[in-house]
## 1
Amino acid sequence: MTNLSELKNIGPVSAIKLNDLGIHTFLDLLFYLPFRYLDFSKTLNISDYIFNEPATYSGTIISFNNIFTKSPKNIQRATIKDNTGTLNLIWFNQPYLSKNIVVGEILNVAGSVTIFQNKITIVTPQIGNKTGRIIPLYHQSATLNSAWIEKTISLNLQTLLQNYSEVLPTNILQKYNLFDIKKALIQIHQPDSQSQLLLSQNRLNLHQSLSLLAQSELQKQNILNKKPAYILTKIPKTNFLPYKLSISQQKAWSEIQKDLLSNNPTHRLLSGDVGSGKTIIALLATHLTSANKHISLIVAPTQILANQHYTFFKKILPKIPIFLLNNKNKLPKLPNNAIIISTHAAFYQDSKFFKKIALLIIDEQHKFGVLQRNFLNKLKNPPHTVSLTATPIPRTLALSVYGHLDISYLSHLPHWQPVKTFIVPEPKISDCYKWLKNQIKTTAEQAFIVCPFIEDSESLSTVKSATAEFTKLKPLFPKLKLELIHGKIPISDRQKIFDDFKVNKINVLVTTPIIEVGIDFPNATVIIIQSANRFGLASLHQLRGRVGRGVSPGYCYLFTDNPNSPRLKYLTTHYEGQQLAEFDLKLRGPGELFSTLQHGHFYFDEKSIILAKSIIQDLSKAKYNLQKLIINHSSLTSIN
């Protein structure tokens, strides 16, 4: 049994919806981990409530009313009583509760007590099996909510665990007092207590760290025994550049140029903040390779970004043959100085294709999975490889995680100015839209409005969707041209929308986070991020970097129902990706780390990295096969 649809609670339609979340296999589902938890395990008397702290309460139902209004919304009110006091409960649009809540019976409810209409109240409390325990919360889609995902994993957990086994020897588990991986996974999905959950989260974090360090160690061993596919010797002039390189660009280019001219394969990571000028360094590397009569390949994470690179390279290097490779076209016979720009499609070419490549540049390297990396490792004479990333890496951990790579850092360009960032609470949203309308009218500049979802989610009524927001905003901006874009729109139509936006035929682009990586529109100066608390710091920083890339200053507005969020507040006063990465490292508890693991950004935990290094040293001495430690399922290694 390997198909998802053969599991309990999953039919063919549900399996497709799981695929949209990046869940294709049993292991993907097993490692689809909660991003946080609601702890309702504490049971309190009503009079012992603590404001805004989750807990479970039990009492006799003394009243229940279904209130229907003229609007589509209806309200359910109830009151429970124990021997210490009374507690008010309120739900919205859940009239079916009248079948489950009967006056005179005992009701267990879970939630956080607050003041609502001057009364001590729990708004939308949980009832039934949601009370008295720790509830895992999973990233959900518009069609699959967290409760369904929790139920489905719970029903199938033992079956899923049959397909996974502990990778560490018993003596290592005993020496370091570690949870067995299966026990840890059970506690992650069905926690018994906070202490058990914390131990399990630490074990899963170690699991990730071991995989990263094992990859690094194996790649280091692999590199030492290889020669590059081609030797490059000629240094061409760079007087064709449209501007003078910054000091950090000059340093990075000097380091990469030295690598390319050596007799060893280049393995370098170019880490640069949003807008630091990584692409021009990549262009210089391909230009040097072409001058040596050899072929370069640039691999981008999306077709849109590949198209953008293609246009830019053709403009700056008009005399060099440049080709765009995608799933639909085939390459002609290549001149020996060609530059190829592609997506993951390049990795599906035959083996002869890669034997022609002297330089491989991978844009946003964290978005490429283990299979692609293993493919490169198997090449007897690999191409020089330069990886680009805008995902900030805490310097304290970079050498541990990327020990097999040389690392160059880019700082901001000299003319860079930070994007002014503001938190906008719900009462101020209409004022912000009025400002946006006037800003576009007076400056002819453009804006993005980013929503987490494509469609509305019944289970997350407060989280904005792009389609609903687009419909709502059109009448608010009658004289402006608005357009909607998201990942389900065909790639050719998306490209047309981006092209129209580029030439200012569109004033406001309502979008999902598909614009996060690399998209460059110099005339876009405003970005509004709906439900900003739903995004991680790295994603917010990337999205913010889509505006203010031209001569005019950029503005970022974070719409949220939680204006006191420490993460959002920090983002409004800090603009360096490195600072944000270090802050994220300090701020996150283990309960939040899995959110970033499942969205393509590794969580760097210093303690687990140090522990993993010690374990790998022990395993290496014992001649243990480190390949067993590498995680090969998509949930923890690539974008979902």
Note: The chain has four domains: 1-36+147-164, 42-130, 167-415+616-640, 420-574.
## 2
Amino acid sequence: MSSFDERENAFETEFAHREESKVRVRERAVASLAQWAARRLGRSAAAAKVLTQEVLEADVASPTVEPTIDRIVADLAPVGIPKQEVWQAMHRFLAEAEVAERSGRPWRELVRGKFTLPELENGLEALQNGALVQIDRADYERLFGLNDVALGRLRNFARSHQCIVSFADTIVLFRKHIAPVEEGLDPQQ
């Protein structure tokens, strides 16, 4: 094989990889948007899963994301969420999906839902490095309280489960962060 053929194959492979990555990013962002919409509508986890599947199937048929946005806006019309807010959410989810794709973080490892403290502890213990657990702000307040002491309690809880905690407007995210063990170092020292 000539060097020209090798370069041509390399470019084709790189192009295919970039296109597959774009598809995964869009799929992840659209799924996150559908789950966001389901939460805004107050749907159950099962209904959110159905909505997400329907939106993903419809999105595959369109070369642009505009019909998907229109679908979500129509679904959210009863609760009065404007198209601009849906677009803002979509842009945020696209940015998050791009970061997740570049970091190689698995998509299937985002766990959402209402938790009791033991369920949250079990969920965090079972996570792989880089995976996420999302809880609603109301659940956070119910589990940890709503004062300055609660924030410290939450951070200690996250640290004890090898997680980093971050806050958004209506959610709290726990990201599993297991520090790599350096060779030659004994953790017992």
Note: The helical segments are 3-41, 45-60, 66-76, 83-103, 117-125, 137-144, 148-160.
## 3
Amino acid sequence: MGKIYQVVVQHERMLLIDLCNTEEEMQRLTVGQLKEKILEKLPELEGKLTNLCLIFGDKRLIGDTSLLSEYGIQHMSSIHLIVLLLGGGPQPR
């Protein structure tokens, strides 16, 4: 049986996210694909894909087409998930 490449996502609770089965697939995974896999584990966030902010180390993962490997993310890396809340401005009169 092959290796399953995973990352740990820290949110309200720790999530173990299965990404792929080979190093080659791991090198081609994008930020957007990771967000989709997170939504599979957290269906309550459905429809909030654009509100998901992922942070690895001191870097925000920007651009859904960016490769995880460009950020140095590898098997069992720990990624923080923040759900951005829209609004907060003054109330309309």
Note: The mean pLDDT is 91.
## 4
Amino acid sequence: YPWAVAYDELGLFALIEMLFFVIILMLGLIYAWKKKVLKWN
């Protein structure tokens, strides 16, 4: 939500940086999921 509020001031470059950050987080989640680290047994 703070990103959406600040988008008008930051511009396209900041949007690309935010997307890059989220993609890195998603890649880490996918890696952990594939390694079956997220099993709660």
Note: The CA atoms of residues 29 and 38 lie 9 Å apart.
